[in-house]
Amino acid sequence: MWCCVLRDAWLMAGKDLRLEWRSRVAINQIAPLALLFLVLFAFGLDPDRGILVRATPGLYWVAVLFCGLLAIQRSFALESADGNRDALRMSGLDPAGIFLGKFAGIAAQLLVLEALLVAGVVILYSARLDGFGLLALTCVVATSAIAAAGTLYGVLAAGLRVRETLLPLLLLPVLAPVLLGSTRAFEAALGGTTTDGWPWVGLIAIFALVYLGVGIAAFGSLMEET
Prior knowledge:
Number of domains: 1
Shape: globular
Number of strands: 0
Structural class: mainly alpha
Order of helices and strands: HHHHHHHH
């Protein structure tokens, strides 16, 4: 069973990433917007470099979260056009495989975005990457949580005409613990006190596993109902 699920996930993720690579939306629009967030924050807080340095973890994850919303909305907008949702339902792909494929496609885009933003905070905010291992693991675990929750709520909002405004209202409260945990872990990584960050990574991992489990179990029903 799981071989079929993983095969379907691979097909779905490959399809989404190929479409994204050909359209260049993430490269030409979402990535510049994310960097623009950092530049605007730098201009707004530059008179007091101390505040800017202390706020770096929070600013980083706010930029990731809001640009991640754009990536999630685009991923499901592709399925809403030209009856693609109906074709996807009748394709014979396992719903769990579709969920995991959408999750993997969104997560891959977010990881590239986060790597770009890490370079941005190093250049613009003079951040020091002392705890790089903690920082990298936080990105992976937090990205998993954001992508899993985004895929779950994305399919819920995709069938509605107000999906552009409904998705943030549904998703942001659910991701508040992830934003808090990832910010605290980043603070520990950038501050050199990595031992303080590992419990927060564990907390984010719990949320990621919950979102993944619920998504695998419920994605098929949500796709049929919407």
